[in-house]
Amino acid sequence: MLRTIKNILLYVRQIPGRIYNHYSFSSSIWGIFFNPFYFARKELFLFVKKAGSQLNGKVLDVGCGTKPYKKLISYECYVGLEYDTEENRKNKNADFFYDGHQFPFENASFDSILCNQVLEHVFNPDKFLSEVSRVLRPGGKLLLTVPFVWDEHEQPFDYGRYTSFGLKELLFNHGFTVLEHHKTCNDFSAISQLYATFIFKKIMNRNVLIRIPIFYLLIVPGNLFGLILKWILPKNNDLYLDNVILAEKQLNDAGEGNG
């Protein structure tokens, strides 16, 4: 009987985490009430869903984490790659791990590559993008998402923020042509998201009995307010949360891929 009660209490304590995980990577409007990163995650989800329709064949997800966008990609084979650490081996759904220098694949091994919110954690972006280009076949597609306005996170492994111009220059230098470029939350929702992130980081390690009331007293009203002003106020393409870029690996004059 005592064990049953303990199991019930344990399950109840896990309910907030289960709900959060369900709405973490989703476009559902219900995320307003459960996800402190609602605006950022919603727009990334929608843009990845749209651009991800152009990824196909053998797909490599670089920095795959839990593979939250796998269901949005049309693939024949889906491979997840992560940086080799004890924590990543324990908590991430990767199929392969690498040493931070060279991907463990042959040249032109993949038809498409997804790289979601990873580049800011790479100290040497030129070396990293050289590896991305190397394992992608000529004419293959790269879907890259990178923060522009965001807080420091996953410290101390947070090394850079990129403007749209900087990203395009980086990609061009590594043999890519930009096909599409989108800016997420280029409206008042960016302000609402930063406000929610600020509050959440202050309460995330608090007891659940403190965390949940503050979430519903401060974050949820902020989400609702942001949703209203998002439609009322004009967009601002100079202030936004994330860059979403679909690029293609160029062919050289001989019809071969660069990089």
What do you see in this structure?
With 259 residues, the chain is α/β, with parallel strands linked by helices. It has a domain at 42-186 and 237-249: Vaccinia Virus protein VP39 (Rossmann fold, 3-Layer(aba) Sandwich), CATH 3.40.50.150. Mean pLDDT is 88; it is low at 5-15. The relative contact order is 0.15. Helix 6 runs antiparallel to helix 7 (208-232). A 7-stranded mixed β-sheet has the order 3-2-1-4-5-7-6, with helices on both faces. It contains 7 helices and 7 strands. It starts with a helix and ends in a 10-residue tail after the last strand. The protein has helices spanning 2-24, 38-52, 86-91, 125-135, 164-173, 189-203, 208-232; strands at residues 58-62, 77-83, 96-98, 110-116, 136-147, 176-184, 242-249. Helices cover 41% and strands 20% of the residues.
Task: Provide the CATH top-level class of the domain at 42-186 and 237-249.
Answer: Alpha Beta
Distance N to C terminus: 64 Å
Question: What is the CATH-assigned architecture of the domain at 42-186 and 237-249?
Answer: 3-Layer(aba) Sandwich
User: What is the radius of gyration?
Assistant: 20 Å
Main sheet: strands, sense, barrel: 7 strands, mixed
Order of helices and strands: HHEEHEEHEHEHHE
Give me the CATH superfamily of the domain at 42-186 and 237-249.
Answer: Vaccinia Virus protein VP39
Q: What's the count of strands? A: 7
Which overall shape is indicated by the principal axes computed on the Cα atoms? Answer: globular
Tally of separate helices = 7
Task: Please list the strands of the largest sheet in the order they lie side by side.
Answer: 3-2-1-4-5-7-6
Strand content: 15-25%
Helix content: 40-55%
Strand-pairing-aware structural class: alpha/beta
